[in-house]
Design the sequence.
């Protein structure tokens, strides 16, 4: 089942807005299972936006309180994550205060317990003569997983795994609570309205749940955070396999083949790096013996990139230029 088939309404497109989606759903279960790692990764992502007072972060009420420490009374209103605004699903309808914002970041999804939704469906359609199929009826204790397709702008095939319900009526309730709440959050930017504000705006969906919106980029969550860890280790991150191994001898990419594969993947993240990681610049450099330029990510704190490359790599660098 593709995401495009999930709604009978016309596809949502956001003119001059870029939509990014990540391949991991940061559910309460995953946070319990890998608590320190997943929670740290969420903070690491949000730290890339926290200084921007034109960013809206939307998540579940539970995760919002985990991240901010707000009390129940405080979360009735829009809060702050440093300078960025933060709110939660179910608390956004009708709000127009974010229509001039440039960015919305959606973390996790609102997914009620399957038993609660099954009981709600039974109550709503109790006099219809319709029998509600429960997860228990198919031998499951909770939602089974199903493969869905994202609607990609470039028409590439991008399949994701997401939970679903086997009963059509319960599935409608699930989509109202989950998919519709994500689109509500995105709609706070009023992206479908024409106007000068709808230029170069960014939407980040940090959940693998497919929603009724066209996606420009589908990013690997773990790859992004692997790169952020590399930045913590070194002010220079070469995307040349041999040079990568010189600077990161303790990385899990121990062999040249492993480093080649990793560098190829890291190069695919360059559009995201240019957008989010302003303190690193993409350089192209040539060294003695090279036939073509290699790329490296170098911190803005490095005053002389050529000297830093020569010292750290142990090679003579012929030229260094910012990537055009």
Sequence:
């Amino acid at each position: 089942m593709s995401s495009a088939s999930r709604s009978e309404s016309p596809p949502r497109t956001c003119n001059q807005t870029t939509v990014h989606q990540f391949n991991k759903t940061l559910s309460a279960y995953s946070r319990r299972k890998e608590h320190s790692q997943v929670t740290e990764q969420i903070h690491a992502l949000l730290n890339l936006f926290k200084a921007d007072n034109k960013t809206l972060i939307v998540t579940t009420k539970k995760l919002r309180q985990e991240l901010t420490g707000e009390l129940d009374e405080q979360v009735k209103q829009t809060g702050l994550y440093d300078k960025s605004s933060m709110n939660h699903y179910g608390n956004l309808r009708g709000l127009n205060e974010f229509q001039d914002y440039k960015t919305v970041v959606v973390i996790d999804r609102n997914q009620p317990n399957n038993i609660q939704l099954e009981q709600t469906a039974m109550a709503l359609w109790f006099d219809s003569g319709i029998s509600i199929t429960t997860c228990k009826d198919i031998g499951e204790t909770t939602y089974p997983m199903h493969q869905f397709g994202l609607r990609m702008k470039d028409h590439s095939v991008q399949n994701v795994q997401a939970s679903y319900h086997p009963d059509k009526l319960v599935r409608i309730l699930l989509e109202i609570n989950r998919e519709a709440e994500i689109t509500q959050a995105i709609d706070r930017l009023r992206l479908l309205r024409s106007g000068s504000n709808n230029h170069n705006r960014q939407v980040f969906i940090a959940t693998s749940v497919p929603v009724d919106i066209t996606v420009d980029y589908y990013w690997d969550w773990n790859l992004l955070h692997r790169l952020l860890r590399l930045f913590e280790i070194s002010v220079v991150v070469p995307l040349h396999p041999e040079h990568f191994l010189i600077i990161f001898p303790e990385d899990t990419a121990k062999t040249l083949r492993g480093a080649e594969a990793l560098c190829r993947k890291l190069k695919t993240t360059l559009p995201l790096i240019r957008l989010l990681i302003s303190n690193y610049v993409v350089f192209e450099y040539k060294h003695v013996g090279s036939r073509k330029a290699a790329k490296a990510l170098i911190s803005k704190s490095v005053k002389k990139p050529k000297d830093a490359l020569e010292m750290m790599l142990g090679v003579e660098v012929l030229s260094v230029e910012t990537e055009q």
About this structure: The radius of gyration is 23 Å.
